[in-house]
Every structure is written in structure tokens, then in C-alpha cells.
Design goal:
alpha+beta; SH3 type barrels; 5-stranded antiparallel β-sheet; 1 helix; 28% helix; rod-shaped
Amino acid sequence: MFFDTVAYAQEVAPAASKASLFSSFLPLILIFFVFYFFIIRPQQKRQKTLVAMIDALKAGDEVLTTSGIYGTISSIVDTNTFLLEIAPNVKVKMAKGSIGSKVNQDIGTGDQSTIATPKSSKDKPSSVISKKSSKL
């Protein structure tokens, strides 16, 4: 009396076909290829060029470490370490893996040709005060 509902058996669904299984994994496969070609592959290329640059370092090269210290390699101790001169007569023993990049020799040389100089009196900076003769 209280349970007057009748339970009906449902039909068994056919097994999923291979085409529908492939189409459900297709977005995941496409996402993997996108990640590979746009993220993983370029990172591997950058890593290879960094390792090649570190292997080609020699004494006298100016480098920038990953911690932001500029210095000149004074000597190579062994395959994994070298001496980095960061100031006159200040040498630090560092691992080769701490090299971030090789510094271009033109940067930081203090080349005066790149500094603009005034060409006329109109171009003089405002901090320059001209002296006028005054009559008393």
C-alpha cells in the first residue's frame, strides 16, 4: 500500500565503441602536443644553448651569475668550478651551473662615444649657469 511503484529494469547500454573512446581522448592529446611544442621544446633548446655556452667559457670572459653578480673568470679550477673575480683582488670560487649568461664585452666598458654632449648653447643643461659680468 505504501509502495505502489513498480521498478522497471533498464536496458543495458552497448559497450562504448572505439571511435567514441578516441574522440573523448582527442582534446587531451591535442593539449599535450600544444604543451610540447610551445613550452617543453623551446625550454629544451634554451637549456642546450646554455650548456654549450657554459662549456665554451674560458679565462677572461665576463659573465653574469644567476644571483646577479657580474664578474670575470680568472681561472677554471676543474670541470664544475671556476674562480670568478668580482672586484680587483677579490676572487670567489663558484660552480659552473651558477652562470646565467655571458656578458657582451661592449656593455659596462664606459665607452664615452654613446654619451650625448651638447652641441650648442641652446642644448646646455639647465643646471649650467653662465656667469655674466656685472658692473658695480
